[in-house]
# Entry
Amino acid sequence: MTEGTEEAVEQSRAARDLWSRTLSQVPTTFGRIAYLAGLRDSNTGRYQHFGLAQIYSTEAAGQALGASHAEAFAEWLTYPLEQQKNDLEEYLASLDERRETVLRAWAALGPYRSLVPASATEAQRELFLSDLEVILELLRTEAFPFGPAPGA
# Structure
């Protein structure tokens, strides 16, 4: 086997391991996107996962994480808006913070912008952000029916 083939096999194993041990436990696609984006170093763009890097090489682990992030992101983009909204609502319900608190913070700070994988095209980035902002506006309207969310 050539070195490139060995690396590809190791990355594939790391990706399967990541899915079977971790990502399969995350019930929402949006949650998987958020989880994987959280493993990306904002200074370097490299993905880091201590457990995977202990079993596989740091490079294979990082590539598996990046590929999984891009895959979850692409999957979410295929959902119709209603399914995206339902998935996001389920994700928000799983957080420790109250939904209204998260919606206020997201309106003020826009942290969801950092969830886009670096490999995403500009069209994918724009679609994700526009879909998400429409959904967030719907959720804010439901949460704060008598006016704008405080801090929005």
Observations:
- The chain has seven helices and no strands.
- The chain has a mean pLDDT of 91.
- Residues 29 and 72 are 6 Å apart (CA to CA).
- The two ends are 56 Å apart (CA to CA).
